[in-house]
């Protein structure tokens, strides 16, 4: 697992209070990991803080799974 | 329309002197002080360095990690105390009509710590408003009753009352009236507060409202003593289950007491100072007696607002003498704030519970820390000083007053004839 992927995972485990094993690439924040709309906003803000990036709202809307978050951040950090 | 009778069928408490009802009563009975140096933050620059914090409370014992992050302490306390009261009431949540159960809850401030920390983060940033999405829903005072209803599925009337230190007394009175009028069968009511924070201590300190007896915190809350120097900030929650009498009887519920009435008034005088002659306080006790169908001579005990401030204590006792006349000296008057400190919006609930427990046990908890008589206080009044007093209690009243001049008073009557 890349460094980014493991940091993303750690944030999700912490903020959503879920088990590490549940945080797989395909897992959806809302459908699989029990996040509501406020949790999702908080996750995006945590990603921004952790990786020192800006995720505009229109792009944040497209980040709904663990994999999508990791790819977005990897792309942004290139 | 005939008003329905309302009784208390469940109690819950999370206080600085006990984390449940039985511990709370043990503390009250034994004159235990909940005051100690503040552990939540560094107080070295603060004028007052002590408070009545909740002790041995770990939110993780009650909530999962995600819930802990979503709940300010005042809402955590609300859930813990209301859970105890619901369980105590023995009501079977699988068979009751949840549209007929409501929650009316008092909080004088609400999520002060959440507000403080979010604003500190913002102030430390570059000006970009990166507020946590839980900031507002964690902080607002009505989130406590909101969360109680979400947890249990109660779909009746639901809101918070905000009248500073009278908040939970107003909540109980509203809950009483909704059942009286037939809007619901059961109301979860009470209040919670968690203002022992830098903002809370600093704010009350700057008003010169708090005791600064840093060398002896346990002796600081001393209502009616000549050397009292302000209140001691407390925190916690008290919860009561109010239920329509026939509903309670039909399910064979244990009944603690009848809630016979409530009084409300306003000083219309000053933002924070009590009226020196206690005119609003006289009005609230008169209203309460009238609303309860009681005569002054019926009252056995009054749990005063008695915060241990120089002005407030004297004005309240003057008002009691005015309302009760010669009977005032027969009443067991006490201030349990001498032990718990001042729980602000939760005060009305925890003190009403103290009154009900006193009735149950025929024992009036003491006003501790009394050393020197105040010449402005009539020595004929029985202030239940330093030791509990045995007494068969038929009627108990509980007073609470809030900044803004809000006064509320609730009366309970024993079911034993």
Automatic annotation (TrEMBL), chain A:
One annotated GO molecular function: acyl binding
Domain Carrier: 2-77
PTM notes: 4'-phosphopantetheine is transferred from CoA to a specific serine of apo-ACP by AcpS. This modification is essential for activity because fatty acids are bound in thioester linkage to the sulfhydryl of the prosthetic group.
Keyword terms, alphabetized: Cytoplasm, Fatty acid biosynthesis, Fatty acid metabolism, Lipid biosynthesis, Lipid metabolism, Phosphopantetheine, Phosphoprotein
Principal location: cytoplasm
Coiled coil as UniProt keyword: no
GO CC, alphabetical: cytosol; membrane
InterPro entries, per the entry: ACP (IPR003231), ACP-like_sf (IPR036736), PP-bd_ACP (IPR009081), Ppantetheine_attach_site (IPR006162)
Gene3D superfamilies named among the record's database cross-references: ACP-like
Residues found modified as O-(pantetheine 4'-phosphoryl)serine: 37
Any one Pfam family match given in the protein's UniProt record, by short name: PP-binding
Pathway the protein contributes to: Lipid metabolism; fatty acid biosynthesis
One BP annotation, GO: lipid A biosynthetic process
Function: Carrier of the growing fatty acid chain in fatty acid biosynthesis.
Assigned protein family: Belongs to the acyl carrier protein (ACP) family.
Protein name, per record: Acyl carrier protein
Protein source organism: Psychroflexus gondwanensis ACAM 44
UniProtKB/TrEMBL annotation, chain B:
E.C. code: 2.3.1.179
NCBIfam families reported in the protein's UniProt record: fabF, PRK07314.1
Organism: Psychroflexus gondwanensis ACAM 44
Top-rank taxon: Bacteria
Function according to Swiss-Prot or TrEMBL: Involved in the type II fatty acid elongation cycle. Catalyzes the elongation of a wide range of acyl-ACP by the addition of two carbons from malonyl-ACP to an acyl acceptor. Can efficiently catalyze the conversion of palmitoleoyl-ACP (cis-hexadec-9-enoyl-ACP) to cis-vaccenoyl-ACP (cis-octadec-11-enoyl-ACP), an essential step in the thermal regulation of fatty acid composition.
Protein name: 3-oxoacyl-[acyl-carrier-protein] synthase 2
A GO MF term: 3-oxoacyl-[acyl-carrier-protein] synthase activity
Family assignment from sequence similarity: Belongs to the thiolase-like superfamily. Beta-ketoacyl-ACP synthases family.
CDD domains per UniProt: KAS_I_II
